Amino acid sequence: MSNPKQVTIVEVAAAAGVSIATVSNVLNRGGIRSSKETIRKVELAAEQLGYRRNTNAAGLSRNKTFEIGLIVPVLGGYYGQLAEQLQLEAHRAGYHLSVFSSGGFDPAIERRNLEVLLQRRVDGLICHGLAMGFESTRSIVNSGTPLVLINGWGWPEDIALGAVNLGFSEACRQSTKLLADRGCDLLVYVGNKHSKVIDGQRRQGFETGIAQLSSPIPHQFVDTKDLDMERFLQELMMGPAKRVGIMAFDDYVALRLLSMANKLKIDMPDRLQLIGINNDSVSSHAYPSISTWDIPYYLQANTAISKLLHKFGHNVATCEEREFEVPLTFIERETTKI
Amino acid sequence: MSNPKQVTIVEVAAAAGVSIATVSNVLNRGGIRSSKETIRKVELAAEQLGYRRNTNAAGLSRNKTFEIGLIVPVLGGYYGQLAEQLQLEAHRAGYHLSVFSSGGFDPAIERRNLEVLLQRRVDGLICHGLAMGFESTRSIVNSGTPLVLINGWGWPEDIALGAVNLGFSEACRQSTKLLADRGCDLLVYVGNKHSKVIDGQRRQGFETGIAQLSSPIPHQFVDTKDLDMERFLQELMMGPAKRVGIMAFDDYVALRLLSMANKLKIDMPDRLQLIGINNDSVSSHAYPSISTWDIPYYLQANTAISKLLHKFGHNVATCEEREFEVPLTFIERETTKI
DNA sequence: CTGTTAGCGCATTCAG
DNA sequence: CTGAATGCGCTAACAG
């Protein structure tokens, strides 16, 4: 017995001198109206007794919890921003959002949290960058709970309702063009294979961009993990390239490159140009400030929630496509401006 | 009717040819043992039918949810790290943690989330930097749900079980000494009044430190909000001080100062020294890298959860003090090393 | 309009 | 060891 017994509608009913059904009616403002008098009495009694509805009981009774579960890899940066926005959108629709972290792509934790959410009978699920594979996910989530993926490319229809994906690929594609236009004669993508699928999208966009260049430019791929940044930049500067353009995995990777460039006194943007992704606050506060791609959190969150609401039967406009791609917008700052 | 009807113990019982009570027993590994044979039958049936326990119903029935609610001002940086750690500790104790954000100290959102959590009958609550005042909080949380505060100084006993606070004050106090030792002849605290109570702690520690200096050093207070950093740093450099020591509100503020200093080509650490707080990843990746105070997340999370567990009746060691202060540890980096 | 009743899914006595 | 019965707090018909 954890809590010292909370007030229930039974007590409120007694205090107000009405039946529990009446209490339930007035307190939830259902279709049924009550007389002014009873409303007053009930509200007063509820107020005085400090009544607080037990939503678990309510959910049990009507088989609907008005809860949406969210699982993100980590509570910070881009994921955190998204979560905030999702919470807002959920609230707007009368739901609440419970946020869980998979502890940095840990499949075990992710799985546990998924299980917890399902056991809570959440009405819907939003998952970002599922670390588990198709099969694993399917076996867990086949209960009929609607699932919307964020940044989930090519997931089977029987698992997820749909997905809202960020246009990383396109952003990276355009970045190569942009860096080429700015006069870069060597292009490099500094990835992060830790975030497997997202890294894949970015890399692919970069490759596509390279292939579409009007005049070919040498390029290379490296990964943050096995990279000695200092040595890497030094060699770049001693190489034949007059101006190197780097597409960084995200703003944090960009910041690290930028810091090292500062240390090596590399002239930015003359000898080195840099583009990040996310428009994290660090990108604008760094010196020089980092050009980056901004994420339309509102659009992202709104479409994700809308997909769920639609499934719930709410009458909302929602895109038909299963995989909706939201475009990023370029924010030009000092690392590329010439 | 949101979900297309989930499997219940009734069906499992039928399939296994036993009663629901038996199912409940074997599935929850309660005190009561069952025969090997029934265990097998039940587990098989549950497995095949894809049974998943409805924790809401279970919670309703035993008046215990094994859920802990967490409210943080924002899902990112320090707060995010803490949330991750709290989730871990909660898991370890057999609870799960639902994370909510108050959307950046928004009292309305905070209040709504608190209410939601209370209505869900969470077993316990952990709140970080409550935006609402004493009275407001008391009126909401007086239901008997145990509440532990993080960074809540001087809260009345009838509201919160206790608090675990970070030693910001002490860290700032020591920082002044340190900057003085490094030869700074002007000390300034760049605060952030947006985070009222935390800013207060830091400022106070800074003041104390100043007062305790063996030989007095001129000092000043400014606030991030109404500060033109460029002009501010320029004037500092043109002033009489040979070496300025800045205690920044946190690593992000420090990064902004550092970036501006880089832009103005101010020599760090010779003419300007800088200390941040939080040991955020940016502090180590900036150039020059930022000296800062590291937060013992594990200790923080562990004591917070322990306080709750203790209240729940679990037999755990827990500190007696109502307000437990966890000390920060200094990480020296290039902005102060000479 | 208001009260009565029958569940929601599960845990928990208390008899067999 | 197992099962029938009761209740957790609330909602949803359905009667009055």
TrEMBL record, chains A, B:
It comes from the Bacteria. Residues 7-62 form the HTH lacI-type domain. Keywords: DNA-binding, Transcription, Transcription regulation. InterPro entries: HTH_LacI, LacI/GalR-like_sensor, Lambda_DNA-bd_dom_sf, Peripla_BP_I. The keyword Ribosomal protein does not apply. SUPFAM superfamilies: lambda repressor-like DNA-binding domains, Periplasmic binding protein-like I. One of its GO terms (molecular function) is transcription cis-regulatory region binding. SMART domains: HTH_LACI. The keyword Transcription regulation applies. PANTHER family: HTH-TYPE TRANSCRIPTIONAL REGULATOR GALS, LACI-RELATED TRANSCRIPTIONAL REPRESSOR. This is LacI family DNA-binding transcriptional regulator. It comes from Paenibacillus roseopurpureus.
